[in-house]
């Protein structure tokens, strides 16, 4: 798996630029900067994350950036329909690609346990030009235009979620090692069939949907935004999750226009 070290939030970047790693934008980021100068980096992060954890959301975000320490960054999409296209202002796509693709190039739609690619411009599956919606299979290569190539993976036997990876030289905006198409669960851990493979972890961690929100579960004790929890916990839009051998962060992204 490719590592996105420049964008992954290591310990030094959290100390110097907490507004980019721990939070999204707006008043909470401003509060972080003020607290940073008053009470120090660690206390500032703890207080701001505590405030954000109690703030209700008007609606659940469907686009998040998932940063996994020591692994990389991932675009986490929780909606059933995903629009792929060019990374331009107001393009209205869920997966913006910096490359030679149309502004709105293709849909990938989840229908039950299946995924269907719907071409809006030139799309090939396993080299064959598509002129109608086509069901995807694990291992398929999807070519958009002349040069952008994505691989489709759906390998976990207990989850309907899937993974898209850019196999060509282009990248997404923001940059991501993979795009996670989350159905009901997204599984992180050491198994090769997991959606995010984390070789140094001793156990699986499961992100799952419940109601309109996103939750996390893993056996034993861990922390969410610095608060001790056991076995499972709800998550807010911007949060950190840390256990004995794992650490990751979720950051809300703007909804597609």
Describe the structure.
The protein is mostly beta strands. It has a single domain, classed as Tumour Suppressor Smad4 (Sandwich). Helices cover 14% and strands 41% of the residues. Strand 20 (239-242) and strand 21 form a beta hairpin. Helix 3 packs antiparallel against helix 4. It comes from Blastopirellula retiformator.
Give me the number of helical elements. Answer: 4
The portion of residues forming beta strands comes to 35-45%
Could you describe the largest sheet, including whether it forms a barrel?
15 strands, mixed
Order of helices and strands: HHHHEEEEEEEEEEEEEEEEEEEEE
Form type: globular
At CATH level 3, the topology is Tumour Suppressor Smad4
> Oligomeric status of the shown chains?
single chain
Structural class: mainly beta
CATH architecture classification: Sandwich
CATH class: Mainly Beta
Number of strands: 21
Question: What percentage of residues falls in helices of 4 or more residues?
Answer: 10-25%
Provide the gyration radius in Å: 18 Å
| Structural domain count | 1
Terminal CA distance: 30 Å
- Catalogue the unreliable spans: 1-59
Brief overview, please?
Residues 1-20 are annotated as: Disordered. With 257 residues, this protein is mainly β.
What distinguishing features does this structure have?
4 helices, 15-stranded mixed β-sheet, Tumour Suppressor Smad4, mainly beta, FHA_dom, 21 strands, disordered N terminus, 6-stranded mixed β-sheet, 41% strand, 257 residues
């Amino acid at each position: 798996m490719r590592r996105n070290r420049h964008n992954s939030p290591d310990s030094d970047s959290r100390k110097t630029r907490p507004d980019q790693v721990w939070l999204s934008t707006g008043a909470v980021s401003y509060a972080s900067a003020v607290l940073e100068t008053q009470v120090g980096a660690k206390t500032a992060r703890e207080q701001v994350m505590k405030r954000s954890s109690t703030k209700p959301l008007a609606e659940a975000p469907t686009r998040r950036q998932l940063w996994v320490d020591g692994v990389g960054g991932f675009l986490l999409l929780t909606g059933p329909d995903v629009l792929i296209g060019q990374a331009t202002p107001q393009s209205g796509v869920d997966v913006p690609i910096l490359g030679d693709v149309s502004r709105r190039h293709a849909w990938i739609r989840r229908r039950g346990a299946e995924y269907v690619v719907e071409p809006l411009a030139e799309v090939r599956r396993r080299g064959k030009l598509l002129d109608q919606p086509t069901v995807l299979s694990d291992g398929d290569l999807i070519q958009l235009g002349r040069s952008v190539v994505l691989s489709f993976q759906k390998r976990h036997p207990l989850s309907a979620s899937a993974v898209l990876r850019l196999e060509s030289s282009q990248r997404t905006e923001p940059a991501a090692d993979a795009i996670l198409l989350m159905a009901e669960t997204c599984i992180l851990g050491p198994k090769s069939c997991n959606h995010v493979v984390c070789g140094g972890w001793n156990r699986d961690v499961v992100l799952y949907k419940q109601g309109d929100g996103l939750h996390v579960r893993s056996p034993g004790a861990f922390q969410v935004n610095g608060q001790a929890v056991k076995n499972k916990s709800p998550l807010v839009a911007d949060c950190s999750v840390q256990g004995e051998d794992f650490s990751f962060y979720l950051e809300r992204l703007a909804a597609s226009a």
